[in-house]
Design brief:
Layout lengths: L6 H16 L7 H8 L15 H8 L9 E5 L5 H9 L2 E6 L2 H10 L6 E4 L13 E7 L10 H8 L3 E12 L16 H4 L7 E11 L5 E10 L3
This protein binds S-adenosylmethionine.
Length: 227
């Protein structure tokens, strides 16, 4: 599941991310990365040929949602996870800040029922507030620097409908552990920030992966506390 990428690719990503951060545009590097990949998914470090295995496992353990249930896929990348959720029965919107990524999704899945949109997590349409029965966040928070964490959590949490769920797939680290990203794994204190929005962790699966480098990952489900 965890596939260690060649050092050259890891270094390229770190260089692109730190250049973007130095210009105070911490997510400006995604679009050039997708554009430079020029249609070759091997050049996109996080690309997988199928939906993320932790999402696939979660879907296989859950029945189809009620008719017309809506799912939102944050930072949908090349679209595999959005397609898996749509196939499971959700009406899916997938968005990404990268126009090349979104055009790539549309090209890969020309007959898809997923609504793919170019959008910036930090400037979403207010009509999306509390509009989704399932909000799916996979590996995007960890791709953004630590100083943005409160804003990222504050942008994601309000998207979840009052009776909805938030599913997060992420690398995790202990609170005291420093990290040099990307990726910047999430710590318990950072994850707890979702609770400030009324979301409560109701399920967690943890995974340890990797051979030369050990990576701790988690799939966490949040729901609003029922009053
Ligand atoms: C590490 S990739 C993960 C992609 C996908 N979620 C996955 O797991 O394969 C991070 C994604 O977030 C997108 N992204 C970064 N900043 C964003 C923002 N502000 N709004 C929307 N998408 C963003 C990037 O373009 C990229 O596709």
């Amino acid at each position: 599941m965890f596939e260690e990428k060649p050092l050259s690719m890891q270094n390229r990503v770190k260089t692109l991310a730190s250049e973007a951060q130095a210009q105070n545009q911490p997510y400006a590097w995604f679009e050039p990365l997708y554009a430079q990949a020029n249609g070759n998914a091997d050049q996109v470090p996080w690309a997988k040929s199928a939906a993320h295995p932790y999402l696939q496992a979660w879907l296989s353990e859950h029945p189809q949602p009620a008719a017309h249930s809506k799912a939102l896929v944050i930072g949908c990348g090349l679209g595999n996870d959005a397609e898996a959720l749509q196939a499971h029965g959700y009406q899916v919107t997938g968005f990404d800040v990268s126009p090349t990524a979104i055009a790539w999704c549309q090209q890969r899945f020309p007959n898809s029922a997923v609504d793919y949109q170019v959008a910036d997590l930090f400037h979403l349409d207010p009509s999306w507030n509390q509009a989704f029965d399932l909000v799916y966040e996979c590996r995007n928070i960890q791709a953004l620097p630590l100083n943005l964490r409160p804003q990222v959590v504050g942008a994601i949490a309000p998207l979840v409908a009052q009776t909805g769920q938030l599913l997060v797939v992420t690398r995790i680290r202990p609170d005291e552990q420093e990290c040099e990203g990307p990726p910047w794994p999430l710590s318990p204190l950072e994850l707890a920030e979702f609770e400030a929005y009324g979301l409560v962790e109701t399920d967690r699966a943890t995974f340890v992966e990797g051979e030369t480098v050990t990576v701790q990952q988690a799939r966490i489900l949040y729901q609003y506390a029922q009053g």
